[in-house]
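Annex B.
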Amino acid sequence: MKIRRTGRLTAIAAVMTLTLAGPVHADSRMIPVAAEAAISSAPTSILANPVTAAEAPSLELEFSPIKGGMASYYGRHLAGARTASGARFDPDALTCAHRTLPFGTQLQVTNPANGETVVVTVNDRGPFHGNRVIDLSDAAAEEIGILRKGSGVVELAVLSN
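Endolytic peptidoglycan transglycosylase RlpA: predicted structure tokens.
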């Protein structure tokens, strides 16, 4: 494992790495001996001044809009059934069915009526009903507020890598 950053992030990564391996003291602190030595020998400026959010790398996600339309959701009666990807359908997971997007694609689904948004993962094919563009799991439909109505207009965007 290579650590490419220098300064406080390197020391913190080294301490975190040492925490995951090495002998452990018998007491309840559960700090590896090597990590304890690294912590005690680390410059006090590193320990006293943790990395702030402003110094941490940005984790903003970028989405590319694609064609939206009418969304519906799977019923709970399909729980445990195999999806086209081979996974078992879990109504409580944030997943969806799309006709063409590759399995594993992450989509941001937005209900323009209320502004609610959810990120789901494509793990099935469909919907094969009328003009619908996506089938959501029960949990995803509830997150954006279309569970009670049964369907609703949504905007879609693919997570860009």
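The longest strand covers residues 62-73. Residues 8-48 form one domain. Further annotation is deferred to the next reporting cycle.
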